[in-house]
Automatic annotation (TrEMBL):
<feature type="transmembrane region" description="Helical">
    <location>
        <begin position="372"/>
        <end position="392"/>
    </location>
</feature>
<feature type="transmembrane region" description="Helical">
    <location>
        <begin position="404"/>
        <end position="426"/>
    </location>
</feature>
<keyword id="KW-0472">Membrane</keyword>
<comment type="similarity">
    <text>Belongs to the purine-cytosine permease (2.A.39) family.</text>
</comment>
<feature type="transmembrane region" description="Helical">
    <location>
        <begin position="70"/>
        <end position="90"/>
    </location>
</feature>
<keyword id="KW-0813">Transport</keyword>
<feature type="transmembrane region" description="Helical">
    <location>
        <begin position="96"/>
        <end position="122"/>
    </location>
</feature>
<feature type="transmembrane region" description="Helical">
    <location>
        <begin position="339"/>
        <end position="360"/>
    </location>
</feature>
<feature type="transmembrane region" description="Helical">
    <location>
        <begin position="248"/>
        <end position="266"/>
    </location>
</feature>
<keyword id="KW-1133">Transmembrane helix</keyword>
<keyword id="KW-0812">Transmembrane</keyword>
<dbReference type="InterPro" id="IPR026030">
    <property type="entry name" value="Pur-cyt_permease_Fcy2/21/22"/>
</dbReference>
<feature type="transmembrane region" description="Helical">
    <location>
        <begin position="447"/>
        <end position="471"/>
    </location>
</feature>
<dbReference type="Pfam" id="PF02133">
    <property type="entry name" value="Transp_cyt_pur"/>
</dbReference>
<feature type="transmembrane region" description="Helical">
    <location>
        <begin position="143"/>
        <end position="165"/>
    </location>
</feature>
<feature type="transmembrane region" description="Helical">
    <location>
        <begin position="486"/>
        <end position="505"/>
    </location>
</feature>
<feature type="transmembrane region" description="Helical">
    <location>
        <begin position="209"/>
        <end position="228"/>
    </location>
</feature>
């Protein structure tokens, strides 16, 4: 017997119809009222969370959301401890001085922020989540592989972000609050926030950045007189370190690309690209540049002649250095500094929420059968996985961050290159068949994109420069005992060279646009 689902509003009926269409299964619309899925969806609606997943958001469901929200969500998600830790790597991991760290951060952030900002424009114009858009170049099946990689990407980033915040919270407890508990506190707060979805994420990020940026300004004020003007290096070793640091910076920026369009899908499709791009670019660049420069300045304290700072770092890592910026002025300032540290630690909630939210969307891309399970559930499962990973890797922040940043760049740069080449060469003015997003017969086969992506990724891996393996191209360049990492440059160039002629051939051969 068919059981009809009772919906209270036309909006809820539309939400269910979108899920039915995305899953390709009419039984979704006939869920038994006693089933787990029906009860879950009813509960999600009751608490006011977002029920829709990867389904395209049609024009009639759009709102008058201001594109300025793209600035606040990306600014908030980057104005935090992990971004501070990235700048910190310049002096501490790559051995750069203050001014060469400064120049690297300025130049490569200006360049790197372009790519996620361009993809952020796709959300309002297409109403599609980011990892759906590769179907228009990679085709149906290869796009699923990218979705799986993005799931790993988001879990890894959530882990790194949680550990970054926990390292600061650990210092607040003077090392007596276990790092595992610190990770758990930050992770659980972020998970609760992420489960509510799009509307709540934007609401929180619209205001959370204000308190955090004030905290960073205060931190800069207290630490400013103690920062060390480390001398700039020279020669082949310096050039190698600069290139390796550039890969880390680009990896941090471009890691946002697979989720950048997720946060504008409810905006009107008439939103001008210049506004979407401008606000998104400003959000990425201003937050990362300011906070990373502060991180590099704090990193110079690691090499300070004042043992108070070096002892603090050896004892409690980057969190210890942040605390030492206040503690050097006495117990009163130290007490105030702990309050600032708590807010900086909790700033990680803004970025982890985006990781978990977008993770749930990517899971639904793997197969249509997973669409009927709400994004809420997949985000919850992903949260359990990332919390377990974060607690296991809690003592290895710098290693996890530097290794994961570089690994992101290895596959995301070729992927981003293909996505943007397809858009600007073959789909100018948004020539996307929006009825084809979930129909494999209307999509390209993806031969050109797959081959170009594999070539670009393999060449990037050959440029890998890690402590656990140095690729032959990286070691051949020399300049450093660990080689020189030029993966993002070679990945971009090789992907472009291979993709354009192959895409022309593929289109002529099969006539599938």
């Amino acid at each position: 017997m068919e059981v009809k689902v009772t919906m209270t509003t036309e909006y809820e009926k539309k939400e269910l119809q979108l899920t039915v269409d995305a899953a390709g299964d009419r039984q979704v619309g006939q869920l038994n009222e006693k089933s787990f899925l029906f009860k879950t969806r009813a509960w999600i609606r009751k608490i006011g969370a977002e029920e829709i997943g990867i389904e395209r958001i049609p024009e009639e469901m759009r709102t008058n959301q201001n594109p300025r929200d793209l600035f606040t969500i990306f600014f908030s998600a980057n104005c935090n401890a992990p971004t501070l830790a990235l700048g910190f790597l310049g002096p501490t991991l790559f051995g750069l001085g203050w001014w060469d760290s400064f120049c690297c951060l300025v130049f490569f952030n200006i360049f790197g922020a372009l790519f996620p900002a361009m993809v952020a424009c796709f959300g309002p114009r297409l109403g599609l989540r980011t990892m759906i858009i590769p179907r228009y170049s990679f085709g149906w099946w290869p796009a699923k592989i990218l979705a799986i990689l993005n799931c790993i990407n988001q879990i890894g980033w959530a882990m790194v972000n949680a550990i970054s915040g926990a390292s600061v919270l650990y210092d607040v407890g003077n090392g007596k609050l276990p790092l595992t508990v610190c990770v758990l506190i930050i992770g659980l707060l972020a998970v609760v926030m992420s489960l509510f979805g799009y509307k709540v994420l934007h609401l929180y990020d619209r205001y959370s950045w204000i308190a955090v940026i004030i905290c960073f300004i205060i931190l800069a004020g207290f630490g400013g007189s103690h920062f060390v003007n480390l001398p700039m290096g020279s020669g082949s070793l310096e050039a190698s370190n600069v290139m390796s640091f550039s890969t880390t910076i680009i990896g941090f920026e471009i890691a946002w690309l697979p989720v950048a369009a997720d946060y504008g899908v409810y905006m009107r499709d008439t939103t001008p690209d210049r506004k979407s791009f401008g606000w998104a670019y400003a959000g990425f660049l201003s937050s990362q540049l300011f906070v990373e420069l502060l991180g590099a300045a704090i990193g110079t304290l690691y090499l300070s002649s004042n043992t108070y700072f070096t002892d603090a770092y050896d004892d409690r890592g980057i969190g210890g250095l942040i605390g030492a910026c206040f503690g050097v002025y006495g117990s009163g300032a130290r007490g105030f500094g702990k309050f600032i540290e708590v807010l900086i630690a909790l700033s990680c909630v803004a970025v982890i929420t985006t990781n978990i939210y977008s993770l749930g969307l990517s899971v639904q891309m793997v197969t249509r059968k997973l669409v009927i399970v709400p994004r809420f559930v997949w985000s919850l499962i992903g949260a359990v996985i990332f919390l377990a990973a974060a607690m296991a890797g809690r003592d290895h922040l710098e290693e996890a961050m530097s290794d994961f940043l570089l690994i992101c760049a290895y596959w995301i740069v070729p992927f981003a290159t293909i996505l943007l080449l397809e858009h600007f060469i073959w789909r100018r003015d948004y020539q996307y068949d929006l009825t084809a997003w979930n129909d494999s017969t209307k999509l390209p086969l993806g031969i050109a994109a797959s081959v170009a992506w594999i070539v670009g990724t393999v060449l990037a891996l050959l440029c890998m420069s890690q402590v656990w393996w140095v690729g032959p191209i990286a070691s051949g360049i020399g300049g450093s005992p660990y080689g020189t990492d030029i993966s993002w440059i070679l990945g971009f160039v090789s992907t472009t060279v291979v993709y354009i002629p192959l895409r022309i051939w593929e289109q002529k051969k099969w006539h599938r646009f």
